[in-house]
Amino acid sequence: MVTDAGFLPRADLDRLIGLLREGGRTVIGPTLDDGALVYAEIGSADDLPTGWTDDAAPGRYRLVRDGSERTFGLGPPPQGLKRYTFPSRAPLAVAERTADGAVSFTAAIPDPPRLAFLGVRPCEVAAMLVQDRVLAGGPFVDEDYRARRQASLVVAVACTRSGSTCFCASMGTGPEVTAGHDLAMTELDDGFVVSAGSRAGEQLLARLALPAITPDQHAAATAAVAGARAAQGRQVVTTGLRDRLMDQLDHPRWAEVAERCLACANCTMVCPTCFCTSTTLDSDLDGAATRMERRWDSCFTGDFARVAGGNFRPRRQDRYRQWLTHKFATWVDQFDSFGCVGCGRCITWCPVGIDVREELAAIAPPYEELPMAAPVVAGSTSAYSTAVVRSVAPETADTSTLALVPSDDALLAARPGQFVMVEQPGFPALPISVSRVADGALWLTIRAAGPATTAAIALRPGAQLGLRGPLGRGWDIQRAVGRDVVIVAGGIGLAPVRPIIDTVLRDREKFRHVILAYGARTPADRLYVSEMADWADRGMVVTEIVDRAGPDWLGRVGVVTHLLDQRDWHDRPATAFVVGPERMMEATVATLAERGVPRERIFVSLERHMQCGIGLCGHCQMGPFFVCRDGPCFAMSELGDLFGREGI
Amino acid sequence: MISDRPRVGVVKLASCDGCQLTLLDLEDQLLPIVGRFDLIEFPEATSLRSAGPYDVLLVEGAVSTPEQAEEIVQLRARSRLLVSIGACATAGGIQALRNWTDEPDWRATVYPEAEWIESLATATPVSEHVSVDAELRGCPIAPGQLLELLTALRIGRRPQLPAESVCLACKRRGNECVLVARGIPCLGPVTVAGCGALCPTFGRGCYACFGPREEANVSALHDWLAADRSTEEVDRLFAGFTAWSPPFREPAARAVAVAETHHPRKDEPDA
Amino acid sequence: MHEVEAAPEAVTEVGDVTRFAVKQLTRVEGEGRLDLAVRDGVVTQAHLEIFEAPRYFERIVVGRTPDEVIDIVARICGICPVAYQMSAVHAFEDLFGVAVDPQIRALRRLFYCGEWIESHALHVYLLHAPDFLGYPSAIELAADHGPVVERGLRLKKVGNDLVSLLGGRPIHPVSVRVGGFSRAPRRAELEPMRARLADALLEARETVRWVAGLEPPPYDRVPRLVSLVHPTEYPMNDGRIRSSDGIDVAPSAWTEAFEEQQVPWSNALQARARDGVPYLLGPTARVVLGGSTLHPEAAAALAETGLGDELQTNVFRSIVARGVELVHAIAEAIDIIDAYRRPSEPKVAWEARPGVAAWATEAPRGLLFHRYEVNEAGLVSRAQIVPPTSQNQRAIEHDLATFAPSVLELPHEEATHRLEQLIRSYDPCISCATHFLELKVDEG
């Protein structure tokens, strides 16, 4: 809201503090206490740490007097505002037992102080929003937390400097202030650009009656924050991080980091989002009254996962894994965000300097980006464009591949696994998987299974038809990078996986073993026979099997799962892509699971009755999914036991 | 609950008396406690004596003389619950440093007529001699933990004794880490909580008087500290009041060996 | 049933020798026993045997840094750890030429006051008073005199809390460092304590009145008294070591006037004046020798008792001296808090120098002397620690022998009890006395 921003001269900072203090509100801000930076009461701007900055590194932190005029030159304090919104110790209830055995419980009634948090870093604001979801986002609510949050104002300050342990830019929480504040400030040499982020903030801003900022001030503020962002670079790649991490529960690095980790719990204690607690009991000598208190606890402590029979996480490596996977993976499942805001405290304040950024990179390295265009999905039922048939190549007696040159280049951005709706005037629309994009043409392999498909493969070069697309969610080939790749296809099912083969063979060195297991009814029903030798030459193990052999078939006979007996992949973590008749896919998925391929990395492409292709007509529903929009490619872990169930 | 009025004994072995004094230091609770517990043996506080049997016996001090080694066995036999209290009783205490040395030589340093002194070569925790039902750590023990023990005995619940590091208590108090921010060596990460993080609160490093916590990663902390200072200096940190605790023994033993070199030797004894 | 006062473990008469023995002295710090023999109405043997296990502190501190030594020597005694820290820190600072901030010097006295308060309150109310009133312990005393014991516990708590305020905990506090403290409190942190001390001062005055009314056994002798004496400060951290009969040496020069010696009839080291005359340390010695520096509140409390002279001659009156010092420590603590300004730094930088570090301060029980040899590496190579109890032991045994004939006519049990009470009058701290093992006096 740059247009509404005002400029607060540095000398007027006390005016803002005075406004915040109205009505008995206590202002809490960064201040130096015995040489330590803490959030504590601020009486006036003199209490703020003007002229100081910090030098933070893994396991090392020093305050540095830099002689500048900056009021907010320091990064996040050693401990965050959690101390005020979620105190380390808070009364829960008093349990009483009278002499006659009657028991009563009296819950503590929240009595939150009215606070205004001044000089709050963006990561800190983001952390409060994370804790809001955890502790006040329902269905159950921590009443004390909610009351404290409701009784507080937040005056945030954008960061114009990044410390060496900061990685808010990676986590999307800074260095600018984007949400969760009442007022946001950006510090310039002579004052602050101030804008409102809430109704309360607007009222404060109005009462401050600040002059509008000048274009120069706007530019300076923008540049300063951009500088802080640029200084960070991209330190944690969050793309696919949840899945990458959960794929690595058995990584040897967990044991290695546990050799260094003290399991001292400092990381969780200084983390502004960690919310785990334990209840401690304070009883009188007769047990007549017991005060129950909630205290910060940590998944690193020895008692945290202990039950009568033992400890579920007895080793340091168990505890480190629990912490890291919660912050960066399972938190996403629970609360729709990461549990990390990139404040860097867990790095700075780790007594032995363990750097979560390094651990993430080692345990769950970012997928190597495959050179693929961004997905494009056509947005409506009427987004038709035309295409001209360039060629029609017969594959089998009833199947041909059409090369179509679309009038709209957007169709050429179709990603592996996506499909198009083929519109022939007078015929129902056909959902057809793209079997290749090459030479400016979209390749569709179509089997004559009814009038519309028969008409389609009867088209001659130069003929025209209509297309909508590309549609649907394609294959997540990124998940196969660095792993063995097992592609299993039955019959026409080879068409939707051929783009995988093309992609993998184009960047063959990014994958380990690559295996194709292809099954067809007869030798004559096999697709793309002429390409298979080339595939093998380029590093793919091509295996085939048929239901019924002809006189000149020297290969194997049987079902496709027989091919999965091959021993050259399944002792390593593999990713599998499976397309074919549903029964064949069921059998294949079962076999792959037996071979140890996790369901998160078994992908299938489903066929359903589709008309609109964008989740509006309702035909393709399967449980919670519209197969056309949410699929057609799914991980087995998403489908759960819907897959293979009859009548769904 | 053991009985309506548990019979409690408080005795000492080799120690400074500080842990049993902690019972007297529960000033506000002392009279309520003696109203609910029968202090049948507590020589430091009362002239009434009893040889037991005890429902609960609190034992302070390390086993360091032949007499104590016999006494603790007898005390165990007369006690339903035996609780060792303090660093001496749970880890041998500071005097356990002699366990790595030539004890007669130490004796001779202090006593000219060393042969008249009855002493074992080692000072060891009670648990190395008899089974122990519970331990209160610390040099001295924490008054709150002692009160919790007594309360839990009355109620019949397990006493709440933390298994966490000092760091949790330190951060709950809002302290800045003295190790990270000031470079002061601190054993808090490997030390079990209970003291309330006193030392960091007072601007110095924890010296592990409550002893190692479970899963204490001593070698990792040692390596990290030794990157900025000499190994000897780091070793000495562990040669304190709980040095004989197994996780601390390796660096403590090295520290004692080095310390011995600073003692001016008398003439070599006769062969 | 245990609810009987423990009888002497052995009262035997063999021929014409009567023995009084207490297998374990109670209501004293540490483990000791009494063995006294009388023949023909004459004490032939007065043994205060100490079976406290040896812990070799003089050797434990070898190879350690001065700051480590401060932590270690505190463990000699759970009742007076501050005293050990004070003697050690002063010794090192004297050798290293460290000048601490005047506010830090004052804080150290405040710290020491806390220990005096808790130690004296403990001894007066919980250990000693039951003797005068005929109770086996303060527990039984509380049943009949609840408010009195509660007052004692409140006083003790103030002392403990004062030590905790400056050092984190009452037993083995953590803040004393060479050069100052690891942390100095803010003024505001001391304010609530000042208010409590003001209340405690009234209770301490009441204590003096109470203990002055406790009837002691008759006893009359004039011992040599020894304490620090300072022109303006009550004996505590500074001054000169003086005796009531002319000894006058610097606090670092204890060894000029005193020595640790082995006597042929004892297998223990004894501290003694070089002239061999037994001497008495502790509250009585300080009140007499340092009387001119008593806080006006304490001087008034003493004057009110009218016992100024009897203090010197009847060791059972030491409880009054302890009460007077309770008043002094509280009153001085209040003055220190009132004048306190937080220093900019809690401690000054220092460098170790090789040499001999020696100093004596006044533990609650009397003069505590430390001597350390510091080597080129800045580590201690030799140590000598002379606690007050090992200096008082000759006076104790002397008094046992002198006093015993006056109780011979009493029933054995009561006589033995009186002898125990005499020992308790010294507030002996047996754990402290690391290097005296078995004290024997044979007056025969």
Instruction: Work out the oligomeric state of the chains in this entry.
Output: heterotrimer
| Sequence stretches where pLDDT stays below 50 over 5 or more residues of chain A | none
Query: How many H/I helices of chain A?
Result: 19
What is the 3D shape of chain B?
globular
Q: Please give the order of strands in the largest beta sheet of chain B.
A: 2-1-3-4-5
Largest chain interface and its two residue counts?
Answer: B-C, 74 and 79 residues
Proportion of helical residues of chain B:
25-40%
Structural class of chain A: alpha/beta
Q: How much is the radius of gyration of chain B in Å?
A: 20 Å
Q: Structural class, from secondary structure content of chain B?
A: alpha/beta
How much of the sequence of chain A is in beta strands? 25-35%
| Major beta sheet summary of chain A | 7 strands, mixed
> What value does the average pLDDT of chain B take?
92
For the record, give the distance between the C-alpha atoms at the N and C termini of chain A, rounded to a whole number.
Answer: 49 Å
Number of strands of chain B: 5
What sequence of helices (H) and strands (E) makes up the elements of chain B? EHHEEHEHHEHHHHHHH
Strand arrangement across the biggest beta sheet of chain A: 1-11-10-9-8-2-3
Helix coverage percent of residues of chain A? 25-40%
Distance between the termini of chain B: 61 Å
> Which residue ranges of chain B are poorly predicted, with pLDDT under 50 across at least 5 consecutive positions?
267-271
Based on CA inertia axes, which overall geometry of chain A fits?
A: elongated
